[in-house]
Amino acid sequence: MKDTSKRIRKVSNLSAIDKITSRVERISMSKKDREVVLDIIKALYEFREISINIVDTRNRYLVDTNVAIASCIRNNLSLPFQLIGKIFNKHHASIVHYCGNHDNLYTYDRNYKKMYDMAYGIVEGHGIKDNIVDSVLSEEGEETKNKRTHRIKLLERENRALKHSLTVANSKIDKLNETIQRLSKISNW
């Protein structure tokens, strides 16, 4: 009979981050996207102290962490739902559901908001650049290229800031609507 004790010990030393990282490494995506995705996962899994025991479960603590990661990836890297699903070993419909829950969680859950903002900061820190832009710029002269690159960087930064501001504004609108409903119930009482 084979001795599997060494193999079992190796598996038990595997961390949650290692498990998810190995999935990301097997998925076909650009080097830059992979780098950003791995940084987000590592930061949020470390921040939340996700253990290997709850990976691939329906544990709310893990699910909220994965919702923040998936939403940030989808909103800022525009990776397809199927690809994001492979990261978490989930069907793409689960990722659609995750992203659909983002606004509500961002509005009402302080811990979730902190996680998403942390992930968004990582994306900003990487200065994400669209691959289509690279291909267009490669066909232009150096002076035009520099002007367009500068303008594109400004627009990308503004776009990310506007997306973030929109999320914050929607959160405030939801809170105001709740207050209005609560006040209207009190005034009708």
List keywords for this structure.
flat, Chromosomal Replication Initiator Protein Dnaa, Chain: A, single chain, 9 helices, 80% helix, mainly alpha, 189 residues, disordered N terminus
Helix content: over 70%
Overall tally of domains: 2
Q: If you average the pLDDT, what whole number results?
A: 84
* N-to-C series of helices and strands: HHHHHHHHH
How large, in whole angstroms, is the Cα Rg? 21 Å
User: Which geometry do the CA atoms define?
Assistant: flat
Q: Mind describing the biggest β-sheet?
A: none
Strand content: under 5%
Poorly predicted runs are 3-12
The number of distinct helices, counting runs of at least 4 residues, comes to 9
Would you identify the CATH architecture of the largest domain? Answer: Orthogonal Bundle
Name of the CATH class of the largest domain? Mainly Alpha
Distance between the termini: 77 Å
- Helix-strand makeup class: mainly alpha
| Total count of strands | 0
- CATH topology grouping of the largest domain: Chromosomal Replication Initiator Protein Dnaa, Chain: A
Describe the structure.
By secondary structure, the protein is mainly alpha-helical. Helix content is 80%, strand content 0%. The chain folds into 2 domains: 113 residues, Chromosomal Replication Initiator Protein Dnaa, Chain: A (Orthogonal Bundle); 61 residues, no CATH class. The N terminus is likely disordered.
